[in-house]
Each structure stands twice: as C-alpha cells, then as structure tokens.
Task: structure prediction
Amino acid sequence: MIGVPAREVAVFTRLFATMIAAGLPLVQSLNILARQQKNRTFRRVIREMVRDVEAGDTLAGAMGRHRKVFSELSVSLVAAGEAAGALDTILARLADFLEKHDALARKMKAALIYPAVIVGVAIPAVAVLLVFVIPTFEEMFATAGVPLPLPTRTVIAASGAVQDRWWALLGALAAFAALLRYARGTRGGRLATDRLLLAVPLLGDLLRKAAVSRFTRTLGTLVASGVSILRGLEVTARTAGNRVIHDAVMRSRASIAGGATIARPLEESGAFTPMAVRMVEVGEQTGALDEMLARVADFYEQEVDTALEAAVAMVEPVMIVVLGVVVGGVIVAMYLPIFEMVTAVG
Result:
C-alpha cells in the first residue's frame, strides 16, 4: 500500500484548519479535502473519516483509526481541541508543528544525500578495480617475477578475497544487518544503540539537539493545547525517536506523577543539554512551561540548522579526500612494482 508522506499530512492539516476557521462544517471540509487529494491512500483515509464522523464518531476517534497516517500527537491534540471547542486553533497549532517537523526532517535527509552519493560511487569504483583491473596487474607481476612491496601484496590479497569469497563478504554484511535490526527491535538493544549514537562525536551532538528540539516542540504544543502534562509526556515519549530520550521522558512522567519535577530526571539522564533542563525548570517554577518549551524548541531548531550546514560543509571535502585516498592508493600500490622495475633497469 502506498504510504502518505508527512508533507501531505501537514498540508492537509493546514488547509483543514483554514476551512474550519472560516466557518465551514467539519464534514464539508473533509469532503472538499478528499476530492482535491491526489494520493489515493490518503483520499481513501479521508473518506473513511467522513463516514465515521457522519456515523457519530468524533474527529479524533476517526483519525485514531488511521495511526499510520495520523500520529498519536495529532489525535491527542484534536481530541483536546474538540473537548475545548477550539478545533480551529488546535488544528492551526498542529499544522505549525507538522510543518516545522517536516522541514527539519527534510533538512536532515538532504544532508545525507551527498555522502550517500559519494559512497554509492566509491564502492562500485573500488569493486571494478579489485575484480577486473588488479588481476591483470597480478598476472603481469607473476610473469615478470619481481618482488612485490607490501601495499601491492595487500591490494592483490584484497582482490583475491573479493573474487573468491564475495559470497562470504555479502553473507557477513547480511548477518550484521540482521543482527543490528534484531537488536534495534529489542528494548535493551535499542537503548544500547541509541546511547552509542549519542556518544559519537559530532553526530551525537547533532542527534541530541534534534531530539531536544523534537521533545520541547512536541510537549510545548501539547501543553499549550490543553493536554494534561502526564498525557503530554506519555505522547512525547512515544514520538521521541530515541530510546534514551524515551526513558528519560517516562522517568519525568513518573516523577511529576509522584509530586516531583520534570527537570531532575531529564538532567540525570544526560541526554538533555543543561540549557534545556534549566529552561524546563524555570517554566515549571513560573507556570509558563509551554512558553519556555517553545523558546527552547526555536533555539535548538536553529542550532540543528547551523550544525547541519557545518556538517555538510565539512563532509564534502572529507568524502572527496577519502575517495581519492582509497582509489588513488589502490592505483599507486599497483604501480609501485613497475616503478621499481624501471629504476632497476635504469
């Protein structure tokens, strides 16, 4: 089944909010949005929502039946908006959140395109050298009977391994991928790999800032929309995308349920920056938690943008140098015996 891109859900929410704010009835707005929707899956989902609402269900209930399209955050916000009689305001706030979240996700994906292209070019290039070019040099050196330097012997050994044991290499890669997928599917494995990612230099800092931005934006939107803090923390934990962040948020939920603060468990987790913890603490003390969370989210979204730009600017030359060293190193290693032969003859 064709999925529904996050961008289309954000556009749908913005248009829906505009129609409701303009005074159009709920069902009529959904019918209009269904007719203009080009994504067949999304169009079918909206029409099913219309049938559910006409049958007496709430909008949040109708959305909740399609969790692959509408997140738990969206359903919780719409439920709060319906209960408070402020659906247009809540939908507008939800649209803001979805648009910012989608923009951040797009930027992070765009930052990965260049490294992916370089790796996609480097692997076939090295494979061609090892499988087709190196054997020709190996035969020539064997015929000449010249002693081979260590770099040349290393490259020839790598070529032989790729030609004779390619199945073992592919099997090892497949086994590693399967093991990693299995580990990510378990609670302990997911926690270990997420903690490892946060500890990686540069990447960990970027992931931490993105996670803090997502946490503060999500919780701030929920609290500002009238969702209870306990429910807001539960929804935020489920949408964290990182097990370390998830566990820290759930400890905060348990803490506030016991009459303590949110900030202390966040600080003890080590996953949140000191600034974010202090801002949350101030928000709790002043009763302006949603405002403080929004400010933290704005700050860290800008930090993520800056970090992404710096990472892209740094990765481009590094990847070019790495590609040049790998390919150039293979070529130089194969020409070393030829240089030695020419020197000996001279």
Summary: Residues 90 and 226 are 9 Å apart (CA to CA). The radius of gyration is 28 Å. The mean pLDDT is 85.
